[in-house]
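Working notes for the structural subgroup meeting. M.R. asked for a predicted model of this chain before we commit to crystallization trials. I am recording the input and output together here so anyone reviewing the notebook later can reproduce the run.

Input as submitted:
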Amino acid sequence: MRTRMLIALLCGLLFAVPAALADDPFRDDHPERYTVQRGDTLWDISERFLESPWLWPEIWHVNPEIENPHLIYPGDVIHLVFVDGEPRLTVDRGQRTVRLSPEVREEELEPAISTIPMEAIRPFLNRSRVVDEETLEDAAYIVAGEDERVMATRGDNVYVRNLPDDQTESFMIVRKGDPYVDPDTDRVLGFEATYLGDARVTRHGDPGTAQVASSNREIRAGDRLLEAPAGPIRTTFQPRAPEDDVRGVIMDVMDGVTQIGQFDVVVVNRGTEHGMEDGHVLAVYKAGREVRDDVAGETVTLPEERAGEMIIFEVFDELSFGLVMRATRAMNTMDIVRNP
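Returned structure, recorded in token form:
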């Protein structure tokens, strides 16, 4: 059976409508029902009904008559209903393919839809690291390749020094990237550890031997080995506003683009030390530019303008990675992020 992607729609109970939802949260052009399509995400569907898609868990109504209401699949039908006079969204199971084998009767379903487009963030999950300089300096490192090769790729052996004493075998190969500098304090919050591939230690020692199991670019002497993350890649996110007040800035954008748009991955200067968690939704505001007021003879700063929303999907100590889910105008580094 295919792996099912759980989506964190709710905590298992009917959510009470908070004060923030006292006004009508639904779009004026919302449908009364919607049939889930292959390729949809929870965010996409929420946008059809709600002004603020991340409020989906607040108005979800569990249907006790269906099995596992925590999952939504292509073919399911989302309905707008009223429960005790309050608007709620609920799901009715649609028709899905069931395959039966001669020996074992097993139901095989399409995977449940994900909260956000996983293809946009998959390269950054469990492979992207933000580490301090000391961690990189203390990590195991490649000293040479076999047969005097300057660079190594998949299947090649490399010689490694400074391996840990715990006989760890699985590592990810990284290269020290640019520093992330907090524009508010000018402090270095960490360094990007650029993912190069995976390696498996075949002989411990000093130097030890490792085989490159996979690579996405050439590997050379000086590249570091960090212990590979344990467990499966996370695919579930519960979109919600942060509990604490958040105000930060976009420090960087991945893939070298200059203007930021929908589904771009960005780095913000707020992390676990500031109460950030994966699933937190932040609004992005264009920083107000300074203009000259010739009438008053002074310089004034224009108001901030809302430019979109992002969802945080990977959190480190002092910074986080976020995926831009909606962009109403072009964004740039140094734009402001805060509670939605």
